[in-house]
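Kindly inspect both lines:
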Amino acid sequence: MVNKLKGNFNKMDEENFSTFATYCGLALDHARLYEKIRKSEQKNKVALEILSYHNTSNNEELERTREDIGKFKAPDVLEQSFSPYYLSDDHKLLTTIKVFEQISGIPNLDNDDLYRFTLSVRKNYRRVPYHNWTHGFSVAHSLYVFIHDCDRFTKLEKLAFFVSGLCHDLDHRGTTNQFLIHSSAPLAAIYTTSPLEHHHYNQTVHILQVSYFLLNKNLALFFPNKAKLENLLTSATFDWNNSEHKLLLEAISMTAADLNSTARPWMEAREQVKELFEEFYAQGDIEKELGRKPIPLMDREKVHEQPASQVDFLTNISIPTNLKLWTDKVEKEKKLREKLDLMATLKEESGGHITFRNHAKPVTRGRIERTRSLLH
């Protein structure tokens, strides 16, 4: 085509050459694109290696755990007065291992594997005010109390329950799903629904197969599940041998355990609510900076509305859920009703509100940037 032997180049020759040049350009562009993709994949592999190194336990931590577990006297986690909030992080870790040893349904489970797993779970919880290692331990403890003496569940199912509770908020950023979606966060781009729950699951999936429990802690799924369970109980048709009925109960149990801090003594529950609102307000600060109006629950300038929101939450979600599942209903209901009465009193009093540590702090760029970093 370039060295035409006879005659001059005509219009058809020009068109053919133009088409050929276009394909050559596409080939070069694809080659450059392929090289970019290849480099990007290698960068991702390096990033994953770095994350894996920093997010898993090291030999020093493992050795220290081996030494500590031998001389550790575990508290009675089934005692009515036991509170997970008064244990140090290390004691929570050792107590978790002791509970694992009691309920393990895996034959020939290697102790070092168990220690490494528990250490890695703790390390993968971020240092956010509420959805942290303490919260994961608390939810796992609540599930263990619920299922420990129930012969309707196998050892493996009990193990899945406990692991699900322990891992249910892994790598939580202290923000809600809706905030991630509206902020175009990377997690929201990966998952079309419930990005946080899917992320928590994927943080655990390489060693466990407990997706049903992890994904069913989402309150968006709670209400239809609750209605189904109520219908089964009202009609007396709940069947332990029906796998769907059993999975439904397990899903509700995860939600109940996730919310069980509301059933604890007033001072403990109050501290947990404080920490939760610290996360809410930090998210609201970022939303304001982005030009969006946060919902009242996330707005530190509307702290006076907290009692009303807590009354609604206790009345419609926490009390019905806990009373359907826990055998010590009288004691649970007493604690919940006490908190409900206190919140209702605050709601009715003029100007009454709970004082939270951060609600009066100025919204500084430093605080906003620290919270923003949790999105990534």
